[in-house]
Amino acid sequence: MTASNHELFERAQTHIPGGVNSPVRAFGSVGGDPVFVKRAEGARFFDENDQSYIDYVGSWGPMILGHAHPDVIEAVRDAAKSGLSFGAPTVSETRMADLLCELVPSMDMVRLTSSGTEATMSAIRLARGFTGRDRIVKFQGNYHGHSDSLLVEAGSGALTHGVPSSPGVPKAFADLTTTVEYNNLEQVREVFAEVGDEVAAIIVEPVVGNMNCIPPEPGFLEGLRHVCDEYGAVLIFDEVMTGFRVSLGGAQEHYGIKPDLTTMGKVIGGGMPVGAFGGRREIMEMISPMGPVYHAGTLSGNPMAMAAGVKTLELISVPGFFDVLTRRTQALCDGLSAAAKAHGIPMITQNVGGMFGLFFTDKDRVANFNDATACDKEAFKAFFHGMLDEGVYFAPSSFEAGFVSMAHGEAEIDATISAAERVLARMAG
Ligand code: PMP
Q1: CATH code of the domain occupying 5-68+319-428
Q2: What ipTM, to 2 d.p.?
Q3: pLDDT higher than threshold 90 for residue 153
Q4: Which ranges does the record mark as transmembrane (predicted)?
């Protein structure tokens, strides 16, 4: 036996703050020791002691084909043989950009980055440069990465760790970020009536995945589109999570609304570090070196990341992929809700495409930050640890969405539901 997860975590904390390189990995809100992953395959990963887990985190979204898909691994191997990075253009970047613009309805041009944070940070700068305005509007509990302007009343780790706005974000930046309740169009209209001509952009997660999984109410995204048109603000859909996850063309295709700019990440890198921002040609033409708004990156469009991403996009473009993924996600959610109901535990599920959320609440839907934070955290904690002991790995926080991959077949989903039945029975009893 190698060291336990507890020992590995202790050791990691010597030189890594909190023992992790991204906060939610630390199990801060659920307690206990994080699982140190040695390897992964398909729907499962294995810890350093070869304990197997059915994984519903999938690296927080990218692994839509399952872990270590042979074709993706081969594409990366092939790319690596030709060199890891050149800092000069490659045709693989053109291929990636062509694919993104072909598949994402609103995308005329696109620029690649190395993370979702860079993509949203640069999209905000671009919107400010394009409009000549400084204010941005975002939604409570939406997370757009950790750049200064966007780390205000944010979701995900910021919320899990109880610091939705971070020390170190200058007040002057926070003052330029107005936050509004998600799914509350009335409040958006009120803000615009007051300061609409100062607003460069609205940035929104079209389906929120960073305060669990919260879909937009009918009319909400349309309303944002109208408000932006009326006041000349840029509408940014942050599809880092929803892109190539809720449907092939992202949430914008699923709901039929065209944003001006879109940010991407996760799936488009197939597990390698990638992000992207793109959209209307006249806006994108303002990016350096074409235009005056600066954006750069030593590793942007990295050849291995392009190889993994392009292969992933090709494999998920096969007809029917998202129908199957959606059906599997629905089957999982239906099974979990039925198990909770059978044991009298108030728990509901919400899902779109291949993303889902579990909420311990007696409400019949969760629509915003207040609803999400009012859910029973202790019940989630008990469920999370019960499932972990059963070999099922859900996101270690009640504020994160879960992800189903194409490697989650009937066997994995049935095993998950059976495990949930046992755990929920113990919780009820
Ligand atoms: N936007 C959204 C919607 C996200 O979910 C995330 C990450 N979970 C980001 C931006 C930031 O991406 P990254 O972690 O790659 O910087």
Answers
A1: 3.90.1150.10
A2: 0.99
A3: no
A4: none
